[in-house]
Amino acid sequence: MPHFISQKDDRPYSPPKPLYEQVKSYVLKNMESGEWPAYFQLPSEHTLVREMGISRMTIHRALRELTQAGYLERIQGVGTFVAAPKKQRKAIELSEIDDIIRRRGGRHQCDVHFLQEEPIDNDAAAMMAMTSGEEVYRSYFVHRDNGLPVMLEDRYVHPKFMPEYLESDFTHLTADTLLSQKFALLSHSHVVQAAVSNAEINHFLELETTTACIVINRKSWLGDDVISAARLVFPGNRIQLT
Asked: Which of 39, 146, 197, 202 gives a 20 to 30 Å CA spacing to 57?
């Protein structure tokens, strides 16, 4: 077992995570790889302290937060175990918009209309499991394929889990890519609806007439915590989802 956690890849440089987040990533990667399957007993805190060279307080915090998120189970006087996987409904898989565009041979571009902190309204608070009026991060993007608007993205993000969100460069990185890079075991649910465009959609997607659209409401969470909720609007005559 290594004395430190590092990752070497070709992604742009970003500041190192706090030590407790590194410990959490290490545990989650062992779970994802199958090295630590369901019901596996983790090494003791004393063992992790000795082998990783990290303080027991930091190890304890990481394991406590993973337990609260449902990834681990701690039995007093016995030890810490990998929790049994929760049964989930089969969900649709949705490729990220920049991947969809590039697979079609197009060039992806993102227009950032606003990226800000604001009080959350009642409807969004219900989706995000937050209290109405609580501060939330909100982004409003239009994604283009060779200059043609093909998706409107209206997204809420919980500041507690993504404090860096407002400082991110979304002209080169989609919000879903940012989320998946930070949270290895992020889960998603989708509700798909058919709708006709209104004045807002017509304006931002540059539609000349009322148009049939596909609306996908996408929620992303970690354990029991909702990280993000997004409304994705696609004009039916401009893009095909497969």
From this structure: 39
pLDDT digits (tens, 9 = 90+) for 176-197: 999 988 887 788 888 899 999 9
User: Cα(210)–Cα(199) distance, rounded to whole angstroms?
Assistant: 8
Of 203, 198, 225, the C-alpha closest to 213 is 198
Task: Please report, as a single letter, which amino acid is at residue 240.
Answer: Q
Residue owning tokens 């190890």 = 59
pLDDT band at 161 (very low <50, low <70, confident <90, very high): very high
Give the CATH number, domain containing residue 50: 1.10.10.10
d(CA 162, CA 178): 10
Task: Report whether 137 contacts 117 (CB < 8 A).
Answer: yes
Strand partners, 117: 137
**Are residues 51 and 121 part of one domain?**
no
CA distance 29 to 34: 9
Question: 49 and 101, same structural domain?
Answer: no
